């Protein structure tokens, strides 16, 4: 039976002629342009029918320019970009005005602030948490991108904003190559008790080291999926970061194998239906 088309909830695109990416100089394996055309060619071959663009941590002054660029790409019709998860800075006193502008843009379906590149205290400030609570108004979810050691901070942030919806990126960024299971598994299970949180099955091929195997990866992915349940997970490609661990086609094949025993309904939710619901597509 043919699998349903995948909705990729985590696509990064990079154009250094359009935007500024301060972090790229420290990531030589990724420091180039990553175009929609290149992604679309591979995506179509592996059954991806549409995507949500995930912000790429552009320079602060270019955040709204990034959204404008994604709006242009979506309007071109070359590949279905169904929404944009925009960068944000909830630690900024001007966040409420930014939120009002961004929420008025049809393309914006959620927000993210990468929190493992800033001091831990950023997400603990009263201002940050107050602004995260504001997301409950337009009901736009916040993607949590933290390292496994920071999951207790994620729990604190979620508890401070019980009416805001959250999506945990990359299975909570486990240290798969280092085998650091116990704390991650405990904290993930605690986090999953919060009903306003979903988890993104994404990113993990970049954490398994050069020699990761399907069995190895399956342990971490399956635990995340079982802990949150089939209705609270969605699939993300994390292209081009996934090229650090085999690439998009390899990740799709691994996911298909890991979830082969799930029912057709459960797989349809993982690959597209849950994401469409989470981001109201």
UniProtKB/TrEMBL annotation:
Domain of life: Bacteria
PANTHER family assigned: AMIDOHYDROLASE, AMIDOHYDROLASE-RELATED DOMAIN-CONTAINING PROTEIN
Species per Swiss-Prot/TrEMBL record: Alloyangia sp. H15
Positions of the Amidohydrolase-related domain: 8-281
Sequence similarity: Belongs to the metallo-dependent hydrolases superfamily.
SUPFAM superfamilies found in the cross-reference section: Metallo-dependent hydrolases (SSF51556)
A GO term, aspect molecular function: hydrolase activity
Protein name, as recorded: Amidohydrolase
Any Pfam family hit: Amidohydro_2
InterPro entries, A to Z: Amidohydro-rel, Metal_Hydrolase, Metallo-dep_Lactonases
